[in-house]
Amino acid sequence: MWCMGKSDYKSAFERLIGQLTKLPGIGNRSAERIAFYLLREPVEEAFELADAIRAFKTDLKVCSECGNVSEVDPCPICGDEARDGHVVLVVEQPSDIAMLEHTGSFEGKYHVLMGRLAPLDGIGPGDLNVQPLVDRIKRSHKTGGDGVIKEVILGMNPTLEGDGTALYLGEVLEQMGVKVTRLARGMPAGSTLAGLSKTVLSDAIQARQDFES
Ligand SMILES: [Zn+2]
User: Fold this and answer.
1) How remote is the CA of residue 22 from the centroid of ligand 1, in Å?
2) What's phi and psi for 2, nearest 5 deg?
3) Of 28, 35, 43, 188, which residue is 20 to 30 A from 84 by alpha carbon distance?
4) At what angle do helices 28-40 and 6-20 cross, to 10 degrees?
């Protein structure tokens, strides 16, 4: 029977801490708390977490076109020729797409930023899918046809950071000769797309406003 010696305990512990502290927002203290929590958890529970991470990375792909998370690349929305390729709605997270799709009000395509600008947390444009969006627009203008991106709707959450991100993105995109609009402000300030009802969200798409930088 193999028995874990003191040095093995230390290395397994440190290996986990080393991995956990790589995660965003997890410092040494949080990592230790998680490690001790997992130590107390039944083995199946801890393995469930490990399996979920494995399945997440094995089964999910990031769409090379829009950055959405899907089981295929390109994602079903980018691959759907019936959708309007002239309009792209930019959102912060893949979960926002699910919410917007649920309203059934939007026929165009999406782009996922994977976050929002947060200068205080050191999150700048380079940490988000901003350049891929710029490249995507340029590519579409070069290719022409049904895929030419003519309008970009900024669908950031109406929070302080969401507003800052929209302002930055609007300025970048207007220089590219595309029409920039923003989801209407029927959405309560400080709310998130995920927390809005289908009707409010549907109205926000219909009544989108011209972006003014
Ligand atoms: Zn896609």
Assistant:
1) 28
2) -80, 135
3) 188
4) 120
Among 154, 193, 146, 155, which Cα is nearest to 173's? 154
From ligand 1's centre to the CA of 72, what distance in Å?
Answer: 9
Q: Does the predicted model carry a pTM greater than 0.90?
A: no
Compute, in angstroms, the gap from residue 163 CA to the centroid of ligand 1: 24
What domains can be seen in the chain, in order of their start residue?
Answer: 6-59 (1.10.8.420), 80-210 (3.40.1360.10)
Cα-Cα end-to-end distance for the chain? 68
Give per-residue pLDDT as tens, 46-64.
999 999 999 988 999 999 9
Distance from the alpha carbon of residue 169 to the mean position of ligand 1, in angstroms:
19
pLDDT (tens digit, 9 = 90+) per residue, 76-89? 999 999 999 999 99
Cis peptide before 74 (omega within 30 of 0): yes
Q: How far is residue 156's CA from residue 166's CA, in Å, rounded to a whole number?
A: 6
> How many angstroms separate the CA atoms of 211 and 15, rounded?
48
**Residue 76 alpha carbon to ligand 1 centre in Å:** 7
Q: Tally Cβ neighbours within 10 Å of residue 59.
A: 9
Q: How far is the CA of 37 from the centre of ligand 1 (A)?
A: 37
Cα(68) to centroid(ligand 1), Å: 5
Residue 173 CA to ligand 1 center (angstroms) comes to: 19
- The rounded distance, in Å, linking the Cα atoms of 13 and 11 is 5
